[in-house]
Amino acid sequence: xxxxxxxxxxxxxxxxxxxxxxxxxxxxxxxxxxxxxxxxxxxxxxxxxxxxxxxxxxxxxxxxxxxxxxxxxxxxxxxxxxxxxxxxxxxxxxxxxxxxxxxxxxxxxxxxxxxxxxxxxxxxx
Length: 125
Hints:
By secondary structure, this protein is mainly α. The chain contains 5 helices and 2 strands; from the N terminus they run H-H-H-E-E-H-H.
């Protein structure tokens, strides 16, 4: 599972984690009953405080996306499949965010598209 936190983003780290996990759950990348990393493990991997990851997990639990079980960790709840419209909105949102970052970095369109193509190829492996 790949979760990244942009420390320069105005979005709080817990919200970045929550949003990424919610998208992965909604898209089926993290299917039902998938066990998420422990709070301590994910916090260590990301170089964050455990409370930051714990808040993200709590928010996901409040949304009904995951369940935390004592001694069993946090697992993904079964989800309904996203509709084509929801998939389209999710992709558009991600593309808009990527385009904004590319523009902010001064990356030309060809280079930005090449980076996306590479990630799509790598994601299929």
